[in-house]
Amino acid sequence: MLIGEAPGATEDELGRPFVGAAGRLLTMVLESLGIRREQTYITNVVKCRPPQNREPRDDEIENCSIYLESQIVMLKPKIVVTLGNIAGKKVFSMCSIEWEGIMRMRGRVYSVNLLGLDVSVIPTIHPAAALYNPSLREILTSDLKYIRDLMYGSIGKESNKRDTKTLLDYIKKRHLDYVESGI
Between vectors from CA 49 to CA 85 and to CA 68, what angle results, nearest 5°? Predict the structure, then answer.
C-alpha cells in the first residue's frame, strides 16, 4: 500500500490517485523495478484536492482519517509506503511514533502496529519532490528498490515475482469467500 498526500488537479478530475505527472514518475520507477502498478494499492491521506493545491490542513487530514483507516483495515497490507511528509506524519502518528521529517525517517523499515495490524512502514520522498528536484530521483528509486526486495521475500533474496498477488486477485478471493459462505 502506497499512501500519498492529496489529489492534484489530474487526480481530482479523473478520480484516481497518482495519475498526473508525479503518478507517471511513480509508475515509471515501479515498472523499472519490475513492480506493476496493479500489484500495489495507492491512496492518499486526504481524498479531495485542497484549494490552490496547498498542503492539507490538520482538520482536513482529520476529517479524512476514517477513509484511510478503513482502507488499511480492509486491505490489511503487510507493507505501507508513505510518500512524503504529510503521509509519513499521518501514518506514524497513527502508530504513536513521533515524525522527524522525511529525510531523517526514510531509508529504514519500521515494524509497527497500525490499527491492530503488524505492518512494515517505509517512508520515502514524494514523487512530486523528485519531479521538482531531479537529484531526488535516485533516492526515490533506491527506496522503492528496497521495498521491492521486501515484497518479493527477504532482502537480497530473489523469489518468483509471479507469486505476488494483485489487488484484483484479493478482491476476487474475498468475493469467492463471501459467495461460498452463503451469507
Answer: 60
- Is pLDDT at 158 greater than 50 in this prediction? no
* φ/ψ (deg, to 5) at 101: 105, 150
The domain segmentation of the chain, as residue ranges, is: 2-181
pLDDT-based confidence at residue 161 (cuts at 50, 70, 90): very low
Say which residue the cell 502498478 belongs to.
Answer: 37
Strand partners, 42: 2
CA pair distance 117, 96, nearest whole angstrom: 14
Q: Could you give the CA distance from residue 183 to residue 181 in angstroms, rounded to a whole number? A: 6
All three cell numbers of 17? 490517485
- Mean of pLDDT values over 117-129: 96
Distance of CA 178 to the CA centre of its chain: 27
Class at the top of the CATH hierarchy for domain 2-181 = alpha beta
Q: What is the pLDDT of residue 152?
A: 81
